[in-house]
Protein 1
Amino acid sequence: MLMLSKEPLSFLVVGWHKIFLCKMQPDGEEVWNEIETQSFELAEQCIKTNYYGVRGMVEALTPLLQLSDSARIINVTSKLGLLKNIPNGRVKGLLNDVESLTGDRIDEILKEFLKDFKEGLLKTKGWPTQLSAYTVAKAAMNAYTRILAKRYPNFHANCVSPGYCKTDLSANTGYFTAAEGAEGAVRLALLPDGGPSGFCFLQKEMLTYF
């Protein structure tokens, strides 16, 4: 039985006509600021959709997955959600502490992020300043995937980034087709018993630190 989660980038207003400038100057903060308009309300919605939406769906379907002898959970993530994109070392350490990680701890981190966002303290407190909520939500989802792998050893729970694909979401500015982006998820769906669980994949590349 397979469960695949894919949540939309529904948390910001994007100036798509600027995205080509961003591709030419990917580290230009001024360009990013022109591309995106973040607000607390949209950030809160992003966390609800991209983290709590996934978590709620997993919890609702887990009883059905437990009836299967080949349960697969594939959470679609993004390179933005890698821990290297979160400057805050303490938060990074908490999310990477697989042995102590719990859903409650992730909740606390997300509440802290939203509080700092609302108070305008993202940079001061070491949070990402571009695509902030999406980055943090995906990092939280990656961490939750590791919790699932530990909690349900008979499942195969992994997350995968399809890469920057040519879809409506990216205004067709991506490097990969939708079919190419789907290859990683399909591969994980077809994992044989005994395959990896609790990992993050960049398309087909397995990461050990994420």
Note: The mean pLDDT is 86.
Protein 2
Amino acid sequence: MGQVRHGSATTTHAVRAAIQRSQASLATLSRELGINPKTVAKWRKRATVEDLKTGPKAPHSTTLSEAEEAMVVAFRRHTLLPLDDCLYALQPSIPHLTRSALHRCLQRHGISRLPDIEGDKPKRQRFKRYPIGFFHIDIAEVQTAEGKLYLFVGIDRTSKFAITQLVDKADRRTAWEFLEHLLKAVPYRIHTILTDNGIQFAEQPRNRNTAWSRQMRFDMICDANDIEHRLTKPNHPWTNGQVERMNRTIKEATVKRSTTRATTSSGRTSPTSWPPIISPAGSRRSAGSHPTNTSPRSGRQSQTGSSSTRSTRCRD
């Protein structure tokens, strides 16, 4: 493809090259070529015959500081989130950040398009097939208007039967209590449970098989029910990918939903309790049966208990 000249161009690549090779004076070349002497002087000083890019030589944001711009770039490269998600996540830290300023910042650094970013995500592979009864368990943080809560999620790798429980703390006690609740709610035998290496589920690797190590209550319950407790490889969260994806689905479905609180006899407020419900994914309820503060697909709510539980079936 030949040279693409802008509308005000008075020279071509060949003319510019001739100017750079010529030993004649500026006035002589100006008369011969019929151009301004300043144009001759400009191209004689240039090392190339290409037009320079328009705009500032060192582009920078007029609304963001260097530190804020570095924060935006690091956040985008680490999370690989879409533009609007980055905006909502960064605005609490950078209140004056606008969508247009964020987009221009990402464009300047060449990361405005997610497909062009080569992240550290591993190649997606199909899950190995297992008989029904293989559960993935994980914990997700849920931000509410009243503070931070923790969502325990258990999902069967094969049947996609899922159990959730919302609690105030994510410690070892709530972990094994969720396991007991899971065993009662699942209508078939569980033979394997896969968790990460969090302190709620396992001793830290450096403390295992030492004189001070002891069996955790979570493992005791697994042994009592003839369940194999497996741990993911450290720093490999995608090994537990099915429940990680389930966490995201639940968060996306509840992030804009208000949370009803129940008052206990001691005066404390506690999360609303939902009884376990089994429903096929995509099922429709009859008109007029939608519960308060929930979507048509979510379960019924009651005002008892100190933790929130729900079970459902979901698609991949």
Note: The CA atoms of residues 78 and 120 lie 9 Å apart.
Protein 3
Amino acid sequence: MVDRRQCGYETNTVQIQTNRQDEHNESDSAYLAGRALLAQSFEQHQQIASHLEVEAVARRRVLVHTFAELMSISRCVDPRALLNGRIKSIASTLGKMFYTGAGIHQLLDIIGIRVIFRTTCDCYRLVSRIHDAFAVLEQEYNDYIASPKPNGYQSIHTTVVSSSGFPVEIQIRTEGMHLLAERGSASHLQYKKDRVLWMPVPPLPKFP
């Protein structure tokens, strides 16, 4: 009778089992590492969401106050100026952080105000007045009227800092540019998602 050990059969079998066990252990390690990473990511998102919820009232107050100031300035340029504003939803904010890799304090457009004029000249007049009246983040100034985006989108974007430290993005455009951005070739999914969020800003309720 042939001894299996002499043929190396038993040794090979043990080796195969050992290799399979190693692969199984590696697979388990990768699985556990993946779960840990997902848990950590989920926990971070939960912390950010909680942070945004805590700051929601403060952001709302900043939006209302900045909106009122900007309306006064805009109506001096043209009494027919239209204004609306929005605060990005928590889901939208988390989504942008995920896709861009930006931190919460790197997102400067969570609070936004849009001003719509009839003429391009009025857009630039308002920019000048904004930069005189507010603390401005100069590196965040983008003139897409002079240099439209490839899809034809036109607007001036400038970011100001409120007295409480929250950044507010201001978009300035004409009625024609607004129509193109909302319904024409310059419209895209993100604008469609945000569209329902842009609305006239009512004043804060007065408490006794």
Note: Residues 116 and 200 are 12 Å apart (CA to CA).
